[in-house]
Amino acid sequence: MSRRIVLLPGDGIGPEVMAPTVELLEAVAGAGALTFEEHLFGGSAIDAYGTPLTDETLAACKAADAVLLGAVGGPRWDTTDPARPRPEQGLLGLRKGLGLFANLRPVRALDPLCDASPLKRERIERTNLLVVRELTGGIYFGAKSRTAERATDECAYTRVEVERIARVAFRAARSRVTSVDKANVLETSRLWREVVRELHLREFPNIELEHMLVDRAAMQLIAAPRHFEVILTENMFGDILSDEAAMLSGSIGMLPSASLGEPGAPGVFEPVHGSAPDIAGSGRANPLAMFLSAALMLRHGLGWEEQAAAVESAVDRALSDGLRTADLGGSATTAEAARAVLGNL
Q1: Fewest Cβ atoms closer than 10 Å to its Cβ: which of 169, 183, 219, 228?
Q2: Which residues are designated catalytic?
Q3: Do 39 and 29 contact (CB within 8 A), yes or no?
Q4: What is the pLDDT of residues 23-63, one digit of tens each?
Q5: Which of 69, 71, 43, 1 is nearest to 259 (CA)?
Q6: What angle do CA 135, 136, 142 make, to 5 degrees?
Q7: Phi, then psi, of 3 in degrees rounded to 5
Q8: Quick one: pLDDT band at residue 243, thresholds 50, 70, 90?
Q9: Strand 144-146 vs strand 128-134: parallel, antiparallel, or unpaired?
Q10: β-pairing verdict for 144-146 and 267-271
Q11: Sign of the CA dihedral with 233 first, then 239, 240, and 244 last
Q12: Burial class of residue 36 (count of CB atoms within 10 Å of its CB; 0-12, 13-18, 19+)
């Protein structure tokens, strides 16, 4: 039976990297194995409907086997007016509506790209880590208030929220989990540390657990990235640290992500990069993070490990053969990058 994929190209370069990704998926999955349904999302949905996420789109996502998302946002929708919709609200609404509490962001220092990183090759080579970010709690989802003179954002976590994301991290680890918090200052972090410690002792005593303050973790990612295997952290810290970790792969244009909920619920798979409005329409966007996000979809969303590995191998081979888009110091266009990967598939 054909598996149903909802496409949310979004804004900026989102549609430009989505189109070749669909071509790639059709090639690796085979004729008729996937059915695609496209919806407006983010800024494009605001322009058409006045909201970044319509009820119809959310319902389609809930009924799908997986959701593939491009990018959202851009200067034309930037506003500080809390009454006006922003594209990013669509992301938060999608995560909440689908119950996507776990964000996985794998970071690999690919040998052909080690010299594209601003860090020295000997510092980053052989880095292979996973950031497990809690996605529906914390300061991003807390109660907010705003007056002319004062603004507040509540950061709140429950024991259940911490335990379920920690369980994802421990299950993903081979040997070690580094739990990142700010327990010397924040009460939410002290609860976080307590719950993670208890879960570790009760269910995962064979996995090494270390606790690290977020400021030290930010330094260690640059100074000794191979130290990390699985980084477990809350919403805002995970957002910042995973973007920092993107530099280990040479470019944020190389970083995919998977957002997952309870077993059986559709996940959302998207590149970490933004909508890049400065290059939108130029044909220069790097589609590789979108391709690798599709690989995560094949693996975690559909359970197709062989096809996921084929996509990842095709990307690795294309890079080994010299493929470089502008963000990686080369001149390959989006179309040329897509052809190079398809040629290796």
Answers
A1: 219
A2: 140, 182, 215, 239, 243
A3: no
A4: 999 999 998 999 999 999 999 999 999 999 999 999 999 99
A5: 69
A6: 125
A7: -95, 140
A8: confident
A9: unpaired
A10: unpaired
A11: positive
A12: middle
Give me the helices (H) in the chain, please: 14-29, 43-49, 55-63, 87-98, 121-124, 159-172, 187-203, 214-223, 235-245, 288-296, 305-320, 334-344
Nearest to 33, CA basis, from 42, 19, 22: 22
Could you give the maximum distance between any two Cα atoms of the chain, in Å?
A: 59
Phi then psi dihedrals of residue 58, to 5 deg:
-60, -40
Q: What is the pLDDT of residue 69?
A: 98
How far is residue 310 CA from its own chain's centroid? Answer: 20
Write out pLDDT tens, residues 280-315.
999 999 999 999 999 999 999 999 999 999 999 999
As a whole number of angstroms, the distance between CA 52 and CA 193 comes to 35
CA–CA distance, 200 with 131 (Å, rounded to integer): 18
Distance of alpha carbon 288 from alpha carbon 56, whole angstroms: 30
Q: Are residues 11 and 275 in contact, defined by beta-carbon separation less than 8 angstroms?
A: yes
pLDDT digits (tens, 9 = 90+) for 190-210: 999 999 999 999 999 999 999
- Two tokens, residue 13: 């370069």
The full set of domains in the chain, from first to last, is 1-101+253-345 (3.40.718.10), 118-249 (3.40.718.10)
Q: pTM of this prediction?
A: 0.90
